[in-house]
Design the sequence.
């Protein structure tokens, strides 16, 4: 009888270890970190910086996977279909994912509840860029020319109803102009088009572009924010230039498919938060022009909800303007 009791207790103990120990033993293999844009873009750059530091603490490799297509929709569709075990997580770009969900023409097979927010990484203000040899030396120059030639100046975005597209629509309304909008699948193709003179102006973000600005490949005309960027202290804001309503930013955070066990999500959150505070991470992110903005827990979840509500209004306005 005593032996039976001992065996029974041992089984219970091992069973509890299997349950409670699962998060502690996680991960036992590499973790995939999906980026829904091409390699070389600002989201990809930030992902590779944080992954290289976080994997040291995690004890397994964090492999960055690029799944570009349809302005992020391909990658997020893939993320939403994954098994919620923590081995496949991905970057989620707000407000772009919100507009993909809210635009009925996109026919997204996921909604905002298909994902479990883990931690935000970057808050990246929008920027208006031109080539250094562009005839438009200021935002006023660009707007004046657009007024003379409605619908002729070619303006690039990183995708339909993304933050850059929204920024163009806001500037068009505020300045009373009309631009010829050209959509690209991510930062890199749009920069290539700007350099190749296939477009006249680029609506992008600060992140990932600072090295190009320093090397003289691109020229920022305005920061779409209330405050100047620490990376471009000499570049005026849209608010300064008389367009206080033209404000744009992209936030990039990490999420998993809905249903990730809380203990696993918390472990990923803890490891990633530590990595984001690492001096090496901060130094490399500064060099890339990426502003770190850590949000976790209720703060991050509430931010998702607030952005989604704001995006509803923007999507309605954008659809009317089509």
Sequence:
């Amino acid at each position: 009888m005593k032996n039976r009791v001992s065996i029974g207790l041992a089984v219970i103990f091992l069973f509890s270890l299997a349950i409670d120990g699962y998060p502690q033993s996680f991960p036992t293999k590499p973790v995939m970190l999906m980026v829904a844009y091409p390699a070389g873009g600002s989201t990809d750059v930030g992902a590779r910086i944080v992954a290289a530091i976080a994997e040291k603490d995690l004890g397994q490799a964090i492999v960055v996977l690029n799944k570009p297509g349809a302005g992020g929709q391909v990658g997020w569709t893939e993320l939403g279909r994954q098994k919620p075990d923590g081995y496949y997580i991905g970057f989620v770009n707000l407000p772009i994912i919100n507009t993909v969900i809210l635009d009925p023409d996109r026919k997204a097979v996921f909604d905002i509840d298909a994902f479990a927010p883990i931690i935000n990484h970057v808050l990246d203000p929008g920027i208006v860029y031109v080539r250094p040899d562009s005839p438009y030396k200021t935002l006023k120059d660009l707007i004046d020319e657009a007024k003379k030639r409605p619908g002729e100046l070619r303006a690039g975005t990183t995708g339909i109803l993304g933050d850059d597209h929204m920024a163009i629509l806001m500037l068009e309304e505020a300045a009373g102009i009309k631009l010829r909008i050209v959509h690209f699948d991510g930062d890199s193709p749009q920069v290539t088009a700007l350099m190749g003179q296939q477009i006249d102006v680029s609506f992008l973000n600060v992140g990932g572009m600072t090295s190009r600005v320093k090397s003289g490949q691109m020229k920022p005309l305005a920061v779409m924010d209330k405050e100047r960027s620490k990376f471009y202290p000499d570049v005026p804001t849209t608010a300064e230039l008389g367009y206080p309503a033209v404000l744009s930013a992209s936030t990039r955070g990490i999420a998993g498919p809905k249903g990730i066990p809380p203990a696993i999500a918390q472990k990923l959150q803890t490891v990633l938060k530590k990595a984001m505070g690492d001096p090496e991470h901060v130094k490399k992110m500064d060099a890339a022009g990426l502003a770190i903005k850590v949000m976790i827990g209720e703060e991050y979840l509430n931010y998702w909800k607030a952005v989604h509500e704001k995006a509803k209004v923007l999507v309605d306005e954008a659809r009317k303007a089509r």
